[in-house]
Structures are given as C-alpha cells and as structure tokens.
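Meet our chain:
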Amino acid sequence: MKVLTAQQMREADRQTIASGTPADVLMSRAGTKVVEFIESEFTPLGRQRVVIFCGSGNNGGDGVVVGRLLKTRVASLQIVRITDTPGPVDRDATIVIDALLGTGFREPLDGRYAEVIATINGQFPRAKVVAVDMPSAMQVRADFTVTFAAPKAEMLLDPRAGNSGKLIVADIGIPAEYLQSDLELSEPRDFAPLFQPRKRDANKGDYGHVLVVGGAPGKSGAVAMSGLAALRMGAGLVTVACADSSRLAPELMTQSLDAIRLERITVLAIGPGLGMNRELVSTLTSVAEIPTVIDADALNSIAGTDFRGRGTGTVLTPHPGEMGRLLGLTAAVKPEARLSTARQFAIDRNVCLVLKGFRTLIAFPDGKVWINPTGSPAMAKGGTGDVLTGLIAGLIAQAVEQVPAEIGLAVRAAVWLHGRAGELAAEELTEKCVLATDLLTYLPRAIREIV
C-alpha cells in the first residue's frame, strides 16, 4: 500500500480536482466514509452522543459534512468550530471527532488550537476519539483514524505515530496513478504467495539449506536462536557454525568456526554472537555468491569499510546504534533521519537494509522503502534480533527461484511475521514476560493470519 507525505497527498488532491472532480465532492465523500466507519464501529448509533471539533480548513469541512450526515441519527450532536467563542461542551460524549487539522498543519501550535487539542485529550472520559484523515498535529490521541486514499508518512513514522490508533484507509475516488510514492506499507496479504501449500512429494532438499555463522565462546545462545528460527520458518536444512554446539537444538547440524564450508548452502547468515571478526566476515562475504544476511557483530565487522553488497540478496539488519557505526557516526541514527538514511544507504551500498526499531524500515537498492507496521515493546529484549535473522534466512531459503523480487518479499514477510508474533506473545504473556524464543511459539498463529 502506498504511503504518501503531506506534500504528495496535496498534489494528488490537486490533480484529482484538476481532472474534473470538484473539491466539495471529495469533501462529501470523505465525510461519508467517516460516517460509514462510525456506523460500523459504534452500534446502536442512536445511543451515541457526538462532539465534532472542526478547524477552519478542509479538514474542518470534512467534519461539517460528518455532522450533517449524523444530525438526525444520534442521541445528541454538538459541532464546535475553532472560530467559536469558547463555551461548554458535552463531557458525557461517547464519540469525539477530531476534524481540526489535516496534512497542512504547521508546528508549533498555540492559542485556540492547542487549547482544543488539550480538551480532546483530557476532558472526555467516556468517549472514543475518531480522527479525520490524521490526528491533528499528531497531538490528538485518537482511538481510530479514518484516512483517505493512502496512509500518510507522518502517521506511521512520527515519534507520536501511536496517536493514530487503529488506522482505516478509505477510498474517496482519487485515481491510483496520482498516488505516487516510493514509500509503502507492508500488508499481510502481500505475502500469501510465499505460503502456498507444499507439494505432497516434497523433501527437505526442496526448501533450502541455511548456514548460520556466529556463536563465539560464551555467545552460543545467539546463534542457537537464529538456527532454530530458520528451521521454524520452514527451511529444509540448517547448519550452525559456532564455537560450542552443546546448546543447539538436535535438529541443527554443526560446523566449526575454523573450517566453514559453503558447499550446498543456499543462504548464509553471519553475525549472531560472533564477536568482532573482520577477517572471517570479509572472507565469507567475498566468496559467498548466495543470498547473505548480515547481522550483529558481522555488521560491526564491516563498519568503517567500503563494503558493497550484491543487491537485494545482501540483507543487512542493523538497529539504530549499529546503523550509526556503519555510517561512521559516534551515536545512533536519530529517529527523524531513519527514512532518508535507510534509503540512501541501500542505494549507495547496493543492499537490502532492514533498519530495526519502531516501524522497522526495509529499504532496497532501487530506492523503494517499505514500512513494517507490526511489533511490540515486549520485543525490546536480548535475542529478538537473532530470531529475526533466522526468520529472514529461513524464508529466503524457500524461494523457488533466487531472484530479487522473491528475496525482497521474503525479507518483508519475515519482518512482518517477527513483529506480529511479538504482538501475539505480548497479548498473552504481557509486555514484560516475553522471551525471544517465545516468538517462535507464536509464529504459526502469525502465519495463519497471512494464509
């Protein structure tokens, strides 16, 4: 699904209007879509008490349309315009609609807008908040946001993106060809081709052989988790090269770190628990002509070098601190720079970059970037990155033909599943109690949401 910046969305609106769709028609459609959502979410509608806050621009116009359509259908309705003299509002409202500011807002906000946003956030104890197009200034804490044509980048990548609540994307008739962007949002339906039923006469050789290299003395747990994750993801065979194989699952084969062999390996993953080993990482990445996932200490081992990948088949999975080191910085990449940094690094270094964190970004050498919407604070714990490395390697290994389109889809799917498994685990185990290996327990439930 395309994700547009505010500027791109305004341009799409302009082109739609210029091609013959009047602005008031778009506004009427937007208001109608909001009402359709309210009808479906809040039943019975006749018992709802509604307050609508309207700004002075197009977003406020959408709110006026909503009010007109709801007027005779709810228990009570109050429309508060930003230009009105401040007065009492219905504190017992069950639905509050934020139609103050859309994509054209500018910060900082003060005066009447700031006062009304504070009112929405703090003075309606019984109400659910529905934002029209986007939460005003990304400061309104919405339970739901009904956005139009495409998600907006600010709603997904802003540090306050959680204020959007549940996102509903409504079609208001803006032609797809006007929605131009190289930023997209991963959706589970994208990945269905990767999870078709296996043929009945399948054997383990049909689903690839992953080699995971890492596990220096004292760090075998990291590589053990990666290897097990690759198996759980469906790889036919997984071998682990590490210093101590005593902690590995019995399903995993082993190699020595001192004598790594790449014969019959279809995917290489390097780094979990490896420790700094520039020579080994350089050797493996130079000779391996197979898809390669580079994580953890392997990333630190290429930091400060002119490393270049082989396109989408070279996958780097840094967190912001590792990303900073790859760029030669003394600090982690700042949140506001994540998108531009990921895109440019993937282009310059000819790699697929998985920049982990809230809303993990997957950037490709052609400049396209995908936003991953899944994940949980429960995953802020040691080992979850090692599990992700294994999931990516295991899913790539199952590609029938090793071509960039399939590898890229596999990377995106693994990231989505990793985050969704974390969400499911947190729902049952709480955000505090989830362990990295718990993600593998909930992985099948996440996969079923795709298929």
Notes: The chain has two domains: 6-181, 188-450.
